[in-house]
Design goal:
With 469 residues, the protein is an alpha/beta fold. The protein is built from ten helices and 21 strands. Helix 1 packs parallel to helix 10.
Length: 469
């Protein structure tokens, strides 16, 4: 195959899934990565990248459909960029996610592996998120059939998600199936109020406008937190909108607002002001209660978060006497969840605000055997720290997608805890880190957990045991 772009290929058989939700085909010995296909499909392709050993292609048409295809349930499928596996039956999603873990640990980790335990799927494959974020803007993403229609302008107020790959165009969402009502009704009510009152939506190109973002946290406890983010401060219309929401949605237990005049959407350095309610919500995992504010990190799938932590607790193998070090502890949720089976919990996290939340959550659950420290594990966990708190019997580490820094891998090797439980949202970087830990540890258990149905994302829990030396 010539190494030019924009080559057209016809009737190509799609035969497998690759990482990051892409499908793959093979033509003349070259692997081609494709979006939006299901193994078993036959497609026409236009190559957008064409390297020596691999290529990327976009589908220009289908010549045959896989027997595994199913009808997507969302009217926005393929446009908003989320839930990209809706066309695949859930049991097939789980199969490919399990295979993704096997492939990553085998090809990248290159360590000896036990039989990998079956993936733990979700009972609820819709309405599973407790947190959603929506954007208000001034440019609507037009569907292909709308392009060129003089009666449909992209310049209009819109509320929804960014179109895939576009920073300035939004998909106007009707119904999102990721979170239960009243989320969709709240978003539509805010949009309708602003349009009726002539209030400007935020223009991300010019960084002007008033109505900018909406965050919703809906807990299994029934508590509901809404944070409306404004691009500038207009007290009178702000009060009118927030009062309007309180009247329409008495189920909102906490209503906040944030003024964000920055050029980015992050609110972690801004104050979220409680307008109604206590300013936070309470979520529950088993019988543990957690205080969650508008800037708190918490697992976005409460029910599967519980399942993930149950696997973690099982892999920790606690008997009631162990000192557990919870690294990347965030707001303390994993450490608190395993605390009743441990002798002592030591949590370490870089973000001071998260540590404050962790301490509050420990107090909320009446856990005197836990303490939390803000800072870098590499700096904090020295000999003086071990003399004060004891060396770890079990280490639980739950790093971000980038995985652990090389220095932390080295630190864990130096600590020589008998058991390490590695919780990961990215099996590829987890596999890399397992390769580093292989110097002293062997992988003894592996179990994937599906936190995000209809997406390619997958969590994986690995138990490691210190080798006899």
């Amino acid at each position: 195959m010539a190494r030019k772009k924009n080559i057209l290929l016809t009737d190509v058989a799609v035969d497998d899934y690759a990482a990051e939700g892409k499908s793959l085909a093979r033509v003349d010995g070259k692997v081609i990565f494709i979006d939006g296909a299901v193994p078993g499909d036959r497609v026409n392709l236009r190559l957008t990248k064409n390297k020596k050993d691999w290529a990327e292609g976009v589908i220009t048409g289908f010549t045959g459909y896989s027997a595994d295809r199913t009808e997507p349930f969302c009217s926005h499928f393929g446009v908003c960029g989320g839930c990209r596996w809706q066309m695949l039956p859930y049991e097939k999603q789980l199969m490919y996610k399990q295979q993704q873990v096997v492939d990553n640990l085998t090809r990248i980790g290159k360590v000896a592996l036990p039989p990998i335990e079956p993936i733990l799927g979700a009972e609820n494959t819709r309405y599973y998120r407790n947190k959603m974020e929506y954007t208000f803007g001034t440019r609507r993403f037009l569907l292909p059939e709308e392009l060129g229609n003089p009666d449909i302008s992209p310049d209009q107020p819109v509320a929804g998600f960014h179109a895939r790959g576009m920073f300035d165009k939004l998909v106007d969402i009707d119904i999102c199936h990721l979170q239960a009502e009243p989320t969709n009704r709240i978003r539509k009510a805010i949009k309708a109020f602003a349009i009726e009152k002539g209030l400007p939506f935020y223009d991300i190109r010019t960084h002007q406008g008033w109505l900018r973002n909406m965050q919703v946290r809906l807990c299994t406890t029934g508590e509901l937190m809404v944070n409306v983010v404004f691009g500038d401060d207009r007290p009178k219309p702000r009060k009118a909108l927030l009062d309007h929401l309180i009247r329409l949605f008495p189920e909102i237990t906490t209503l906040l607002y944030t003024i964000n005049s920055k050029h980015n959407d992050s609110i972690f350095d801004l104050e979220a002001i409680a307008y109604h309610g206590k300013g936070y919500v309470i979520e529950q995992l088993e019988d543990f209660r957690f205080k969650i504010g508008p800037k708190s990190f918490f697992q976005t799938n409460t029910r599967q978060g519980t399942a993930l932590y149950q696997v973690t607790r099982e892999f920790a193998g606690l008997t009631g006497t162990e000192t557990v070090y919870d690294l990347y502890c965030g707001t303390g949720s994993i450490g608190i969840f395993v605390s009743r089976q441990a002798g002592k919990i030591i949590g370490v996290e870089m973000i001071p605000e998260a540590i404050e939340d962790a301490r509050e959550n420990a107090a909320l659950n009446g856990l005197p055997n836990s303490s939390f420290y803000a800072g870098d594990v590499i700096d904090i966990c020295d000999d003086a720290f071990f003399d004060q708190h004891g060396r770890p019997d079990v280490i639980i580490t739950d790093p971000p997608r980038a995985g652990m820094h090389d220095k932390l891998v080295r630190k864990i090797l130096d600590m020589e805890a008998p058991t390490v439980v590695y919780v990961s949202c990215n099996p590829a970087t987890q596999a890399r880190d397992l390769n580093g830990l292989d110097e002293k540890y062997e992988v003894t258990r592996v179990r994937p957990v599906d936190m995000f149905p209809h997406t390619h994302h997958i969590e994986n829990v690995v138990q490691l045991k210190l080798r006899n030396r």
